[in-house]
Design brief:
Elements lengths: L8 E11 L5 E8 L3 H5 L5 H5 L4 H9 E4 L7 H5 L3 H14 L5 E6 L6 E6 L5
Length: 124
């Protein structure tokens, strides 16, 4: 790979894994960077319009490109994830797409102790 090349897909390992209808466990996968369309089009989905919490399901179904040996990753697969795995994928999505606030270690000038401080993203 060329130095400075944009990495658009990131491998992941689910903490628990998805169990399909045949009982096969799928843990390894790949997530790609989100596009503007990935963030906009799900807002028109009737499932999201009637239940906004469903947005993450539709969004992850669009950006998870591989999960184990499954032929496709769709909303039904994402719905079947264990809560810990869903949280893991949400965190990965936020990190690879630059949506996670930056944490910095700072030293208090008064007490001398080190604290972690969250610096919000621009516009956030």
């Amino acid at each position: 790979m060329t130095e400075g090349a944009l990495v658009t897909e990131v491998p992941f390992e689910l903490p628990k894994g998805y169990v399909d209808a045949e009982g096969t466990l799928h843990r390894s996968g790949t997530m790609r960077l989100a596009t503007a369309a990935d963030e906009i089009y799900p807002l028109r989905d009737p499932r999201v319009q009637s239940w906004p919490a469903y947005l993450i399901v539709v969004l992850l179904a669009r950006v998870v490109t591989r999960l184990g040996s499954l032929r496709e990753v769709n909303a039904g697969v994402v719905e079947g994830l264990f809560s810990e795995d869903l949280a893991h994928l949400q965190d990965l999505y936020n990190r690879i797409n630059g949506l996670t606030p930056h944490l910095f270690a700072v030293v208090c000038p008064h007490c001398g102790e080190t604290h972690e401080v969250e610096v919000p993203l621009l516009g956030g």
